[in-house]
Design brief:
Among the domains are: 107 residues, Phosphorylase Kinase, domain 1; 162 residues, Transferase(Phosphotransferase) domain 1 (Transferase(Phosphotransferase), domain 1), CATH 1.10.510.10. The radius of gyration is 42 Å and the shape is elongated. The two termini are 79 Å apart. The chain has a five-stranded antiparallel β-sheet with strand order 1-2-3-7-6. Helix 8 runs antiparallel to helix 10. By secondary structure, it is an alpha+beta fold. The chain contains twelve helices and 14 strands. One of its GO terms (molecular function) is ATP binding. Its EC number is 2.7.11.1. Pfam families: Pkinase (PF00069). One of its GO terms (biological process) is regulation of mitotic cell cycle.
Length: 428
């Protein structure tokens, strides 16, 4: 405010000085200064170019020219050339006075307009340099639009894509309709749902808030920690998307729960129900387990440690036979030094009981081995007194080798995810 008042005062002083000089110039000529000699008037038939290179005819075509000091000088010259005592002299004086008044009026309007325009320009807010913004890549085809400038660190709720779903600024009830319940667990429940905007079928997970079990994770591109399951889903939504993962489409936070809107294809059921209802053969299981392994590897590639790999957490579309991994409520971000503390998940690896520590890939491989053994052999993977697993005679030697490598007690001796996918059992 002080700067504006100083600028205004300075502007008024400069304008006053400008008019004072003009008035003294005019006044000195009226008090008897000698009139400049008459300049020869150019012949209208032979126009002469002025300093700007324009002819008098060109100058007449200019729109609304502002009178300068030269026009005032010419007006004074014309006035002094008349007889002050005659009527003609009085007429000339009147014209001279009108010319001076008109000059000052136009000059004042010009200065006033320029002053106002400068004030408006100065009050405009600084513009953001969008060309130099360092955008973080988002997890979709249009990655650069999924996240805001990382200096801000907030996901833009106005940009709603698979790579940047939610949180929505609109209430959940205005966007989705909740249907029948699909399942219920300790941490919440899952229901069918309909997206009102286009009628798409979705699965809606209501994750209850428990202060004891609530976990928050910080992920790249977001400054504040997010609810763990939401944060892990955002990591998995980065391109290229995996067809063996159920992706999050939207999410909301309410007073008593978090709401996750997920992909939902029909007809589908979890693998646990299908395997123990149909008892598929080893050759039929091979295709299902290969997809399960692809989903698990994609998690690790995106820095997500699922920690709860089991038949119940895979769903299969019974029409297309496509298998997808679900439920990241026990998940964690992959850490270079591994995890310590309480184990969350189904298949706890043996190394955990030694020093309460475990790493992402060896634990994932162990969980897959437990699941595959149960699917093919129809029972839990329990070693005998010698510490070895037993297999039925109908099971292929390739499968026995794969499971033996997956369930090696020592983590460094276990197969890697890449070795699992390249194993002979998965080859045609």
């Amino acid at each position: 405010m002080e700067n504006n008042s100083e600028e205004h005062s300075s502007g008024k002083k400069s304008i006053s000085a400008f008019f004072q000089k003009k008035w003294l110039s005019v006044k000195s000529r009226r008090r008897g200064n000698k009139v400049a000699p008459i300049q020869p008037t150019p012949d209208s038939s032979d126009p002469q170019p002025g300093p700007s290179g324009l002819t008098p005819a060109d100058l007449q075509d200019q729109c609304d020219p502002q009178p300068g000091p030269s026009s005032v000088k010419q007006a004074i010259f014309d006035a002094n050339s008349g007889d002050p005592e005659s009527a003609e002299g009085k007429q000339v004086k009147k014209k001279k006075k009108n010319a001076i008044t008109s000059f000052f009026r136009k000059t004042w309007r010009t200065v006033k307009h320029a002053t106002k325009k400068c004030k408006k320009v100065a009050s405009l807010p600084p513009q953001t340099d969008t060309d130099s913004a360092d955008l973080q890549p988002g997890p979709s085809v249009s990655e650069s639009a999924a996240l805001q400038d990382p200096t801000d660190g907030q996901l833009d709720p106005s940009i709603r894509t698979v790579s940047n779903p939610g949180p929505s600024i609109l209430p959940f009830s205005e966007l989705y309709e909740v249907g029948e319940e699909l399942g219920r667990g300790y941490f919440g429940r899952v229901c069918e749902g309909i997206r009102k905007s286009d009628g798409q079928q979705v699965a809606i997970k209501f994750a209850s808030k428990f202060k004891k079990w609530e976990r928050y994770i910080t992920v790249p591109g977001v400054s504040k920690p997010l609810f763990a399951e939401v944060a892990l889903n955002l990591l998995l939504n980065r391109a290229p998307l995996c067809p063996n993962i159920v992706h999050m489409l939207d999410w909301f936070e309410e007073e008593d729960c978090f709401i996750l809107v997920l992909e939902y294809s029909q007809p589908s059921e979890d693998l646990f129900k299908l395997v123990f209802r149909e008892a598929p053969s080893e050759s039929q299981v091979r295709g299902l387990m290969y997809q399960a392994a692809l989903g698990a590897k994609h998690c690790l590639d995106r820095g997500v440690f699922h920690r709860d790999i089991k038949l119940d957490n895979y769903v299969i579309n019974t029409a297309t036979k496509e298998v997808k991994l679900i439920d990241f409520g026990c998940g964690e971000v992959v850490q270079s030094g591994g995890c310590k503390g309480t184990f969350m998940g189904y298949a706890c690896p043996p190394e955990y009981f030694l020093d309460v520590g475990y790493e992402a890939e060896p634990t994932t491989v162990w969980s897959l081995g437990i699941m595959m053994y149960r699917t093919v052999c129809g029972r839990q993977a329990l070693p005998d007194e010698d510490g070895r697993l037993s297999f039925d005679s109908t099971v292929s030697t390739e499968f026995q080798d794969l499971i033996t490598r997956c369930l090696a007690p020592d983590p460094p001796e276990r197969a890697t995810m890449e070795e699992i996918l390249c194993h002979d059992w998965f080859q045609p």
